[in-house]
Structure formats: C-alpha cells, structure tokens
Amino acid sequence: MTSAYYDRVAMRYGKAVRDFVRYYIQPGFGHGFGSFNMTWDSLGALDAWVNAGRAPTDPVATDANAASRGRTRPLCEYPTFPRYTGRGDLDSAASLICAQD
C-alpha cells in the first residue's frame, strides 16, 4: 500500500516529489521483526532536511538483530533495491549498490 501511495503522489507532483518526499524500502526489515532489524537516525535525517535544507543522501542502515548485529545495508530510494556488486563483504553496505529490477 505504501508503494501505491507513493506512486500516486509522484504521479501528481512529478520530479518535484523529491523536494518533499523520500521513500526507502529495506528488504528483510519486516516492520522490525524480519531478518534485518534496521536502525538509522531517521529523525536526525528529517531534522537536517527541514531545518538545514540537507535532504537525505545515501543513508545506511545498521542491523540490530543479535545474531547479525552490525551488518549494514544502503537505504535505496524507491524504486531501487540493494544489489550485491559481486565483490566484497556481503554484510557491508559498501558491497551493495542501489539498482532497479
């Protein structure tokens, strides 16, 4: 439902939507109960955007699950998803890129 809502907003506002909305999907998050328990300073990112005009750029989330604590993933702006580059540590955001299906 969130993707459908975002698509409608983007259709209405076109490219200007990026002036006031950023939408990220984190595979495996599962609303805090998935295989990736995402943590990132979303409030800090929002505060910097509103008060300093600095929109989020290439945010990275860290896993808080006990078994995999510390692994990182890029937060990719919809409609892109994190994809492994084929090189480097699978648990590091630096080894993934944001790509469309």
- Average pLDDT score: 90
Spans where pLDDT lies below 50 across 5 or more residues: none
Radius of gyration: 14 Å
Following the backbone from N to C, one meets helices and strands in this order, namely HEEHEEEEE
Number of strands: 7
Spatial ordering of strands, largest sheet? 2-3-4
Proportion of residues in β-strands: 15-25%
Sum up the overall morphology in one term. globular
Q: What share of the residues lie within helices?
A: 10-25%
Number of helices: 2
Decide which structural class fits the backbone: alpha+beta
Distance between the termini: 19 Å
Q: Outline the biggest β-sheet.
A: 3 strands, antiparallel
Overview of the structural elements:
The strands form three sheets. A three-stranded antiparallel sheet has the order 2-3-4, with no helix packed on it. It has helices at residues 2-13, 42-52, and strands spanning 24-25, 38-39, 60-63, 72-74, 76-77, 81-84, 96-99. Helices cover 23% and strands 21% of the residues. The two termini are 19 Å apart.
Question: In a nutshell, what does this entry contain?
Answer:
The protein is of the alpha+beta class. It has 2 helices and 7 strands, in the order H-E-E-H-E-E-E-E-E.
Q: What features would you highlight for this structure?
A:
two-stranded antiparallel sheet, 21% strand, 2 helices, alpha+beta
